[in-house]
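WARN  no MSA supplied for this record, continuing single-sequence
INFO  ligand: coenzyme A
INFO  echoing inputs
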Amino acid sequence: MIEIRPCSGFEELDACIRLQIETWGYDESDIIPRKVFLVTQNIGGQVFGAFDSEIAGLPQRLVGFAMSLPGVKFRCGEAPEPYLHSHMLAVREPYRNQGLGTRLKREQWLEALARGIRMMEWTFDPLEIKNSFLNIHKLGAVARRYLENFYGVSSSRLQGGLPTDRLVAEWRLDSPRTKAALDGRASAPLNNEGERIVVPASIYEWKNSERDRERARAVQLENRCRFQDAFARGLVVIGFTRDAEGNGIFELEPLHGE
Ligand SMILES: CC(C)(COP(=O)(O)OP(=O)(O)OC[C@H]1O[C@@H](n2cnc3c(N)ncnc32)[C@H](O)[C@@H]1OP(=O)(O)O)[C@@H](O)C(=O)NCCC(=O)NCCS
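INFO  complex generated
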């Protein structure tokens, strides 16, 4: 039985910090401290935890969390729009691939909509095939911005020493695309104007091996150019699929509406 609910009290926030370190292997310079979690809870952000209450008699154990910060979007000629920047999502290794990451995002979605917030964003590494699948396919986010080496050098073990390039996921919370994705309905296939950008399944191995890291870097550089070029031409990442070998495929096309 996994319960998803807002974290409360120092103990539960400390558990988020421990899971953060366990997940990313951050050193001191990269850790988001408890104070920031506390502040975000008090200024309109979110800290949701996934708690395993299976073991009777023992306190609930944190096995996942999602943390977001409040922000405001300013667009020329429009009223400022409050939104959430979802900064972290983590699920403990043995609990992964059981839908918990999706449930945490769904909880963020529900709570934000209940407060009248219609937009959430976060950044993600376009070399991470699983995360891209989760963000674009399962949640229905789109991406049209590419940030080169966004965080600078990172101590995250998931980064494999590569530049911290990121796509920005835009999650329009009340859009038909989001609702369809959360209901498990697949998005329409690419039309003729569409393009594809591929991430080889071996990328995880390459990133983690001294010998093959240059191959991962080459994919990152090539895809960086392709994303930037496609975005400059008005294309948007609107779909993500996996082929039989586990390669990840971004699908881009012009986005009308939303
Ligand atoms: C990203 C993360 C939070 C996802 O949590 P999770 O509980 O495993 O997510 P879910 O089970 O809801 O969804 C994962 C989906 O990816 C799929 N998946 C698993 N491995 C995959 C792979 N190598 N390639 C593509 N998809 C993959 C799963 O099958 C599942 O889809 P399905 O439900 O349709 O079968 C978790 O993997 C994690 O903590 N990763 C490390 C930290 C991180 O990268 N955070 C995200 C930063 S944006």
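Helices lie at 9-24, 34-42, 100-114, 129-138, 176-182, 203-208, 213-232.
INFO  checksum written, moving to next record
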